[in-house]
Amino acid sequence: MFNDATNYAQQVDEVMLFIVISSVILLLIVTVAMIYFVIRYNKKRNPVASQISGNTKLEVFWIAIPTVLVLFMFYFGYAIFHESRVVPKGALIVKVVGRMWEWKFEYNNGKDSKELYLPSGKPVKLELTTLDVNHSFYIPAFRIKEDVVAGRENYMVVLPQKLGTYDIVCAQYCGFHHSLMHTYLHVVSNDDFMKWLGTKDSLESNNRFQEYYPVKKLLAKN
Ligand SMILES: [Cu+2]
Predict the structure, then answer these.
(1) How far is the CA of 210 from the centre of ligand 1 (A)?
(2) What domains can you pick out in the chain, each with its CATH number?
């Protein structure tokens, strides 16, 4: 379950596990108490109901425990969120452009690509924009997802630390071909990244943008 594709993927998994385990424990406690009360206080065993006016100690206990638990969940979640929002100095900046129904990545030397290439071990700021409707940029293996909102610039910070190819998907329903809005992230060594960045395989070689866009053309085809 745990993975170390980024600096915080493992932490996200740990928080998730913490939340799941504490929820399961609470569920068991509540369920067992419920079953106990149903049996212990049914009509046969307890024909006359007794009135209880309250129990301060018990009430403080069941307010304090969940409050502490929720604060813990918030703290761990926020700490990781914070990491994904603070842009470290010298971060590589890549522009991510969403569009019905695909992604485009622009590097500051003018190169653009349909698949995202990132060097391992270097912090990256992904600047998220859309040319049309709202999308959501999601890298499941990195445990990170950020809305790409029309008319607004959003961003995310990642530190890839394991070579490999990962899925990138759109996580916000954005129309007819939303499910096809998928591409790949290649985390490569720094040398390979520099080599790739220097080569020219531009959008012209891959015309899916034109194929799907504009929408009118697409609808006419069907
Ligand atoms: Cu989308």
Answers:
(1) 16
(2) 9-83 (1.10.287.90), 92-221 (2.60.40.420)
